[in-house]
Amino acid sequence: MGSLAGGELPPDDVVVTALRAGDEAMFAALLDTWSGGMLRVARSYVSTDHSAEEVVQDTWLAVIGGIDAFESRSSVKTWVYRILINTAKKRGARESRTLPWSSFEHDGVSVADQGFDAVLPGGWKELPATWPTPESEALASEVRGLIAEGLARLPPRQRIVITLRDVEGCTSDEVCEILEISEANQRVLLHRARTAVRGWLADYFESVKQPE
């Protein structure tokens, strides 16, 4: 399985064939590549890190159990993330700590008002290229923490979209497929989320540079 050594996954048809054949190396490669991001997304729906870990575990079990029925109508990644989110929503609803996606018809309700306390473990992989990049490592680490806090304050729909796009690197098409929303809706949610987080960052930097 030399094609897996570099950390990049082979094409979907190769992945699916390998999984259907019970290829443990391919399954391990998928776990290594996607599980961290899956945990971050799941944590947006459930109340504890442990619950998120169980959601990811249940998702992988569903993937293995359902791979024979996979019809390649979407990418493997999109299919896996849709299973993840459906699993996370059900778990979150049972915990009464998050609401089903379908109930978030408006984005004006704050995270605090709904009892959301999720944060992104480990912060962002990197700052979005369109946002100012701090020059020092210490400041960069501080900003990543601020961004994580900002994401936790976002309305749920905005938070999950910006997490998938800017943290996990999904394309707009993938996000629309995963969440089953329109491109226009995805674009509006992402814009609102980025604007809010940028605003919080701007306010923070404005406050810290005030003369003593």
Task: Describe the 3D structure.
Helix content is 61%, strand content 0%. The chain is mainly α and 212 residues long. It is built from eight helices and no strands. The chain is elongated. 29% of the residues are buried.
Question: How do you describe this structure in short?
Answer:
The protein is mainly α. It has helices spanning 12-20, 24-43, 49-66, 76-95, 137-153, 156-167, 172-179, 183-208.
- In angstroms, what separates the terminal alpha carbons? 60 Å
Identify the overall geometry.
elongated
Proportion of helical residues: 55-70%
Give the tally of β-strands.
0
The stretches of 5 or more residues where confidence is low (pLDDT under 50) are 97-134
Q: Main β-sheet: number of strands, strand sense, barrel status?
A: none
The radius of gyration over CA amounts to 18 Å
Total of DSSP H or I helical runs spanning 4+ residues? 8
SSE arrangement:
Layout: H1 12-20, H2 24-43, H3 49-66, H4 76-95, H5 137-153, H6 156-167, H7 172-179, H8 183-208
Helix pairs in contact: 2-3, 2-4, 3-4, 4-7, 5-8, 6-8
Salient structural properties:
elongated, 8 helices, about 60% helix, mainly alpha
